[in-house]
Design goal:
Blueprint lengths: L8 E3 L5 H9 L7 E9 L1 H11 L11 H15 L5 E4 L2 E5 L2 E8 L8 E8 L5 H16 L5 H9 L4 H16 L5 H6 L6 E5 L20 E14 L5 E14 L5 H16 L12 H7 L9 H5 L7 H4 L7
Parallel strand pairs: 5-7, 7-8
Antiparallel strand pairs: 1-4, 2-9, 3-4, 5-6, 8-9
Length: 323
């Protein structure tokens, strides 16, 4: 009997036959990849951040643009739940958690050690809650607290090369047949909803990130540096705007183009207008049922939506760190 249950996902039943046959036609993730580029106008976003940060003299307490970006991404997944799918063993699964992965440097130098951080997000995230979460996660990473993935890699790299290669062959076989140990899936950063690289933090424009056959992550997003752009407005007047290039590397088998295009429009709108991230999102029972998150069943929706923020955005925002 073929095992169809997984630790990290729920099998999706009742898909259209055209969708179900797609993984048999497009058998690998790289061959199914679409590359897409967008330019975000972040003029208003930067003005918004300047406004809420004006009384914060300590840089550690300032809200970062990357936190806006992450909050918008988590909310986009919550509102467009089919993006949280993945394919394993030619079957479609709904991921049981919203997991965003990114890389942080312990020191902003050429020799600075990179750390992989996989962070679980709630569908009810606000900018304040994400800032607090980022504060804790990045502080622990920079203090050298090893993740489960780090520990596994340290042990594995002490082995001979043939053992390492054999390990990955065995792991791929077990994962394909949904028999990979849960602890290995939890520790592997490639088993996430989306991988986000913030190259703008080091003054680089966004490249197109490659995809991975390993793991189940089918969405890679690169955030570039903020730069000036001169454009004509609707009245023909030349104006200077702050823009940032964002690139998407996407496994086209996950969901059709119309769904994804609308998701990107939604994401772009939230990044460009971050004040809407101050409050809780408007989620429906249909949203929650489709998300099918293990920690947030639809029965908790009324409780979560009934929560009232403790104060204004300025009071709720906590300390954060650059990433």
């Amino acid at each position: 009997m073929i095992k169809k249950t997984r630790y990290d996902g729920t099998l999706i039943e009742g898909l259209h036959h055209y969708t179900r046959i797609t993984p048999y036609v497009l058998t690998d993730r790289i061959g199914s990849t679409i590359y897409f580029e967008q330019e975000f106008d972040v003029t208003h976003s930067l003005e918004y951040l300047e406004m809420i940060n004006k009384d914060r003299t300590d840089p550690a307490f300032k809200v970062k643009f990357f936190e806006v970006f992450l909050t918008a991404m988590a909310r986009t997944i919550a509102l467009r739940p089919d993006l949280n799918r993945f394919i394993s063993g030619f079957n479609y699964y709904q991921r049981k958690r919203i997991l965003l992965n990114f890389v942080a440097k312990k020191e902003m130098t050429d020799e600075g050690e990179e750390i992989q951080l996989t962070v679980p997000f709630s569908p009810y995230e606000t900018l304040a809650s994400v800032q607090g979460k980022m504060k804790k996660t990045i502080r622990e990473g920079k203090e050298g607290k090893s993740t489960e993935g780090d520990k596994a890699n340290i042990i594995l790299m002490k082995m001979p090369r043939f053992v390492i290669r054999g390990f990955f062959k065995l792991f791929e076989f077990l994962d394909f047949h949904n028999m990979a140990p849960a602890e290995l899936l939890k520790s592997d950063p490639m088993y996430c909803t989306a991988f986000i690289t913030n190259v703008g933090s080091i003054g680089v424009d966004a490249p197109f990130h490659h995809n991975f056959e390993h793991g189940t992550c089918g969405i890679f997003i690169a955030l570039g540096k903020v730069k000036k752009s001169r454009t004509l407005d609707e009245n023909g007047t030349l104006q200077e705007r702050d823009v940032v290039k964002v690139t998407f590397t996407y496994d086209d088998r996950i969901k059709d183009g119309i769904y994804c295009a609308r998701a990107i429009d939604l994401f772009k709108n939230m990044v460009e207008n971050p004040e809407q991230l101050e409050g809780l999102p408007e989620l429906t029972e249909k949203n929650m049922d489709r998300l099918n998150l293990i920690d947030f069943p639809s029965s908790t929706m009324k409780e979560q939506m009934g929560r009232v923020p403790t104060g204004s955005m300025r009071q709720d925002l906590e300390v954060s760190f650059d990433c």
